[in-house]
Design brief:
The structure is a homodimer. Chain A is globular. Chain A has 11 helices and 15 strands. Chain A folds into 2 domains: 2-259, Alpha-Beta Complex (Spore Coat Polysaccharide Biosynthesis Protein SpsA, Chain A); 269-359, no CATH class. In chain A, helix 2 (61-67) links the parallel strand 2 (52-57) and strand 3 (76-79). In chain A, 32% of the residues lie in helices and 28% in strands. In chain A, the strands form 3 sheets. The first copy, chain A, has a 5-stranded mixed beta barrel with strand order 5-8-6-7-9, surrounded by 4 helices. By secondary structure, the first copy, chain A, is of the alpha/beta class. The A-B interface holds A 16, 299, 301-302, 312, 314-322, 324, 326, 328, 330-337, 339-341, 343-344, 346-347, 350-351, 356, 359 and B 16, 299, 301-302, 312, 314-322, 324, 326, 328, 330-337, 339-341, 343-344, 346-347, 350-351, 356, 359.
Chain lengths: 360, 360
C-alpha cells in the first residue's frame, strides 16, 4: 500500500495567504503543521513515509524538501506544469515503480481531517474493497446543498468491510445546481466526493486505458525532462473524476466508502472559518478563531464567527464583527464577508489583469 | 477679531491612525489637508492667519510648525500638559495680548465643515452678537438623539443679525440620556453644542472671574515655563462649557447662532464614515470611501457603507462588507463594525493596560 499525494492546487481562494510562490498545501492554516505535513502525518502508521509519494509542480520541489524531511527525496514526482489531476495520477501510476497489485491511495495535499484514526480505518477498508480491482472513492456526508462539490450516488446494499460499509456507485455527478443538490441529498444516497481514491495500480492503469487512453498515450513518449515537458504540453487537462471515475461508475466498477471524519477541503476562507469554529465551539471556546504569526498579536472586542489570520507581523484589532474573515499579510490585507468568500477569486483575477504578479 | 484654535484632543477613538505621537488634528482624514490645516484655511478671509493662535501641548510644537507655515510661530501657546478646555481658553485669554474689546473665536482643531462660506457668515454674525458682551455658541441641528454631545436649549424669538437668527440660551445640557435627547429634539429648541464659541476678550475674562475664579487664580502665578507648569499642576481640569457657559446661560448671558454647514466633530470612525459617505453619495459616488496613502492601493468587490483608510503602504482588498471600517497602518490594523465605533477606545485601553506604549 502506498500513497500518492497531489500537491498541485493553487488555492487562489485562500489569497492573500496562498500565493503562487507558496500555495495552500505549504501553509499552516489549522495549526503548527502545514497542510502537506499533516496529510503525510495522518497516514502513519497505516502508510509509512517511505511509501508516500508526491506529485507537484517542479517549482515547489524546494518547499516539499523543506517541509517533508521524513519522505525520501526520490519520492517526489515533478510535473513540468499543472495539468489537473488526471495527468498527475497517470504520471504517478506510470513513473512510480511498485508491484502492479499494490494498492495506491490518491489524496490531495490540502484537505483537513480531524478524526485521523477513523480516516485510516476507512482507508484500510477501502484498500480491502479495492483488492478485487474496484476503483474506490471516499465519500463524506453532505451537510448542505453545496454546488461546489462533486456528488457520488451510491446504490444497493452495502457490503461491510472492516466494520465499515462500502456501496457500489451508481454514478458520479459534477457540481450540480442547488436545486439538484437538494434533491440528491433528500434521496439519501448521495455523498460528497472527497477527492480521495483507493485502487490497485493495475486497476488504475486498466481503467485509464479503457476510459482515457489519450492521457496514457500522451505520456507514452517519456516520463522525464524534456520528453515529459512535451507530453504535458499535449496531455488533456482534466480531473481524474471526469476522465476515469464517471465513466467507470456507469459500468459498475466504482465503490464508495462513506467517511465521517471531520473532513473539509478548506476550499475557501469560509470553509476554514467553519472548520475552525466548529472545533473551537466543540471545545467550549469562542467562535473567534485564527492564528497569529511571528511578531503578530490580536485583540478582539465582542466579535462572533470571525477568522483572523495575522501573518503581517502586526497588531490586528477587531471590534464587533460577525461572519467575517480578516487575513493580514505583509504586503496585502483581505477583509471579506464569509458568505462572499468565493469572490476572493475576483480580487486575484483583478490583480492578475493588472499585472500585479508579486501580489499573486 | 482673532481665532484661538484648541489642538489638545487626543482622538483615541480614531486609533490606530490617531496616535500619541500624531493625534487627530495632525491627520489628513478627509482630504489632502490635515484637520488643523483645514481649520485655519476655512477661516480666511474672515480671519487672517496672522490673527490665528493655537493652544497645544508643547510636544506638538514641531508638528504645528511643520503643518502651519502660514501662522506666525509666536502665535503658538504651549501648554505643559492637557487640562481640558477651560484652562486652555483661560490661558489664551491671559497670554495672547489683544485689545480687550477684540472678538475671540474659540474653535477645535479637529472638526470638519463642508460649507466653509456659510460657516464664516455664521462666525461674522456671532461676532456681531458678541459685541454687546454676550457669550455666543454655534449650535448645529441635531439629526439623531445622540448621547455623546452637549445640547444647547434656545428660548424666545431670535434677533436677526447679518441675515442669521441668534437666540438667547435658556441652558446648556451635558450629554443627556437617549430618552432625554429625544425629548429635547422633539421640543424643537435644541442644538448640538459644536464647541465653537465667539466672545469679546473682556467678556470672557469677566465671565471666568465670575463663574470660574479658581481657574484664573491658578494661572495668576505666571504664564510661562516652570510657573505655568506649576499652575497647570493645580488648575481644575474641566471644559469651558461646564466652567463658563452652563452657569452663564442660567443668568441669560449666552446666545446661540444655529449653523447648518455640514459640521461633524469626526468623533469616531463611524462619524467619519457618515460624513464621507454623505458627501460621496451626494456627488453620485459609491458608499465605499476612504483614502490610500503612499504605496497603498485598495480593491473593493461589492461593499457598501465602508471606510477604508489604507495607510499601511499595502494592498487592502475588501469583499462584500457592509457598515464597516478598515484602518490599516504599518504596525496596527483595525477592523471595526461602524455601530461599535465607540468601542475602539476599549482596544486603546487594553493596549495601555498592557504597556504597549509604541502602539498608542
Amino acid at each position: 500500500m502506498y500513497a500518492v499525494i497531489l500537491a498541485g492546487g493553487g488555492g487562489t481562494r485562500l489569497w492573500p495567504l496562498s500565493r503562487v510562490a507558496r500555495p495552500k498545501p505549504f501553509l499552516a492554516l489549522t495549526g503548527d503543521e502545514t497542510l502537506l505535513q499533516a496529510t503525510v502525518a495522518r497516514l502513519q502508521p497505516l502508510i509509512d513515509p517511505a511509501d508516500v509519494y508526491l506529485v507537484a509542480d517542479g517549482r515547489y520541489a524546494g518547499l516539499v524538501k523543506e517541509q517533508l524531511r521524513v519522505v525520501p527525496e526520490a519520492n517526489l514526482v515533478t510535473e513540468p506544469v499543472g495539468r489537473n489531476t488526471a495527468a498527475a495520477v497517470a504520471l504517478a501510476a506510470l513513473s512510480i515503480e511498485r508491484p502492479s497489485d499494490d494498492v495506491m491511495v490518491v489524496l490531495p495535499a490540502d484537505h483537513r481531517i480531524t478524526d485521523v484514526a477513523g480516516f485510516r480505518d476507512a482507508l484500510a477498508a477501502a484498500a480491502e474493497v479495492a483488492a478485487d480491482g474496484s476503483l474506490v472513492a471516499l465519500g463524506t456526508e453532505p451537510d448542505a446543498p453545496a454546488t461546489g462539490y462533486g456528488y457520488i450516488l451510491a446504490q444497493g446494499k452495502p457490503r461491510v468491510v472492516g466494520g465499515m460499509p462500502a456501496f457500489s456507485v451508481e454514478r458520479f455527478l459534477e457540481k450540480p445546481s442547488e436545486e439538484r443538490a437538494r434533491e440528491l441529498i433528500e434521496g439519501g444516497r448521495a455523498h460528497w466526493n472527497a477527492g480521495i481514491f483507493v485502487w490497485r495500480r493495475d486497476a488504475l492503469l486498466e481503467g485509464l486505458a479503457r476510459y482515457a487512453p489519450d492521457i496514457l498515450e500522451a505520456l507514452g513518449g517519456g516520463l522525464e525532462g524534456s520528453d515529459l515537458g512535451a507530453a504535458y504540453a499535449e496531455v488533456r487537462a482534466t480531473s481524474i473524476d471526469y476522465a476515469l471515475l464517471e465513466p467507470a461508475s456507469l459500468e459498475g466498477r466504482v465503490a464508495v466508502v462513506p467517511i465521517a471524519v471531520g473532513w473539509s477541503d478548506l476550499g475557501s476562507w469560509a470553509a476554514l472559518l467553519e472548520a475552525l469554529t466548529a472545533d473551537a465551539l466543540a471545545q467550549g471556546g469562542s467562535s473567534v478563531v485564527g492564528h497569529a504569526g511571528d511578531g503578530a498579536t490580536t485583540i478582539d472586542i465582542d466579535s462572533t464567527d470571525l477568522l483572523v489570520h495575522a501573518a503581517g507581523g502586526r497588531l490586528v484589532a477587531t471590534v464587533g464583527l460577525e461572519g467575517l474573515v480578516v487575513i493580514d499579510t505583509p504586503d496585502a490585507l483581505l477583509v471579506c464577508a464569509a458568505d462572499r468568500a468565493q469572490d476572493v477569486k475576483r480580487v486575484v483575477d483583478r490583480l492578475a489583469a493588472e499585472g500585479q504578479r508579486d501580489r499573486l
